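Appendix B. One record, verbatim.
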Amino acid sequence: MAARKRASSDAAITATKRPSEAAADPQIAPSKAGQILTYSLFFLLPYLYLIFYHYSIESELRKSILINAAISFAGFFLTLAMIPVASLYVLKRNLFGYDINKKGTPQGSIKVPESLGIVVGIVFLILTILFQYFNFTADSNWLVEYNAALASICFMILLGFVDDVLDIPWRVKLLLPSVAALPLLMAYAGHTTIIIPKPLVPYVGLEILDLGWVYKLYMGLLAVFCTNSINIHAGLNGLEVGQTVVIASAILIHNVMQIGALTDPEYKQAHAFSIYLTQPLLATSLALLSFNWYPSSVFVGDTYTYFAGMTMAVVGILGHFSETLLLFFIPQVLNFLLSLPQLSGYIPCPRHRLPRFDPQTGLLTGTNDGTVVNLFLRQFGRMSEKSLCILLLVFQ
């Protein structure tokens, strides 16, 4: 969860302001779009190099990828324009919080609009639905799974927004992705086999093992893990969106490498399918990061973390690389293992497992809570919130 403190109910007068008073509402800080786009070139340039120069990709497939990229690029600017507008609406409905990691400073008393992940989710759905017109025909074999994927993502956006509004308990949060993943699991028609690592083949006696329904159970658990792992590896400005941007970039590069190396048309289409969902995710997330980067002028809310986690789970499952996807989630796996004692109730778990902020120095100090954020502070010493976030994203 983000480093924030929810608004209390006694702030309800905001929702009943007269128009003249509403006009005096504070505007959010301008976006850092130029800075974010410059940093994103670190990932985008290798990706474009692989598509245009390194691999010989069929012209039709490359055309579909580029059309999807163009639509995603338009989505970046649409998200960039919608976030300031949506911020005013959520502020009027008292969906705001205070940045705990700035408590005791002037920035710590500013009302920061929450749940702006809803904007990213809506724009993402618009982009992916529009893309169907350019790529899928009515009798396309992939259309059923594509729409099932969008149904699961849409369901997760809804449940995430409900969580932001109602503040659902943790035990219920663990079940939400299971419900949202049902449309995808019911429509999944791909393989249910895994390749046995070569050193283990003599002991297992098989090179390929068909898991059947167990594989679908694994996919459901993967969806639960991805959504909740993004949600608990949080607490710093830009960390939730930043880790999504890094993982999404890795997924794109992995998919292009697989398309260039494989000869089976079905597997190529599976990886292209993954690209069609990941490019809009990356573009809209970069727009959100432009406002969420330190110092954050908006909070993403559980809406975004659930949406991002489910989308990446979907592309891993339908792209037939769900096992590889876990490699991109190694920091989240570590954070989950560190969090287990507190999440299970074995060790007391506070409302916010955040570092201690010193308003005099502006530095964060790690606590004994089981998170990667606190682990890094204990290992590398006190540092600013921005420096810590950059270090964590480099680790990612």
